[in-house]
Amino acid sequence: MTRGILFLVAGSLVASAQIKIGIIGTDTSHVPAFTRSFNDPKSPDYVPGARVVAAFKAGSPDVESSRTRVDGRAKQISEKWGVELVLDIATLLSKVDAVLIESVDGRTHLPQARAVIAAGKPFFVDKPLASTLADAREIAKLAAAAKVPWFSSSSLRYSEWVVALKAGGDIAGALAWSPGSFEEHHKVDLTWYGIHGVETLYALMGRGCGEVTRVATPDMDEVSCRWKDGRIGSVRVIRPKTTYGAVVFRKNGSVSTSPADAKVNYTALVREIAKFFQTGKSPVPPAETLEIMEFMDAAQRSKDSGGKPIRIR
Description:
The protein has helices at 30-39, 64-67, 70-81, 89-93, 109-118, 133-146, 160-167, 195-205, 266-279, 286-304, and strands at residues 5-9, 12-16, 19-24, 50-56, 84-86, 98-101, 123-126, 150-153, 171-179, 209-216, 220-227, 232-238, 245-250, 255-257, 310-311.
């Protein structure tokens, strides 16, 4: 007999043998990776309790990395894991209990989330929450009014090395780095890829950044950040590519550094998504996700002003 699972739909806990997940946007590598974890019991990364049953391709014709990948990844999850491809979001929402908004283009997240919220479905938004702070705030506002739970995160937050660095406690400051390529349609440019470094910094430092200053060069940018409690953090994004990593400075004077081969593991994030769909409780408070968006918006304004310090409200 299959054990029942409680999950949240439109504010009410509902019993189900397995949560039915729908995907909006098939233009990121996360789509086959997440689907494999949910749908393939033979996978070493299998996460039980939920299954991806339907997907809407979406896609952005004016973004090359979306236009050139959306069809191939949709075909992959359909043929390999039996995911039904549907023609629109309304049809998708009629077939599922919860939603993964995976579209690589952050500009599309608000209209996609608006439809999901109207249907009362809990949802996860893959990084970034949105391409602008205004859109991010609107998603949070609409979800709060409808009492629909949501969360958003980079997979870096749950990587083993980030968790290990945070576990040491007493963090007085941190430096995080990541690739930092840009995409012309994302005017808050860190939302495209630099968000991985920003999310790592917040996973280590928590909320409370009060001011950011950004130095921008053709090959890398450095964002220095002062927390309201006096701690200092920084994010370095490097182009065209680099590794991921972080250094943590502790109050006792010790320094901890991520391993040289720091890996990104999607499975830990998928487990958090499954748990979220089962409980309706976000592992990342919406206020923290919004502050991350405020951080990136302030960093953009600092860059645009030639490096002027910008306060976060």
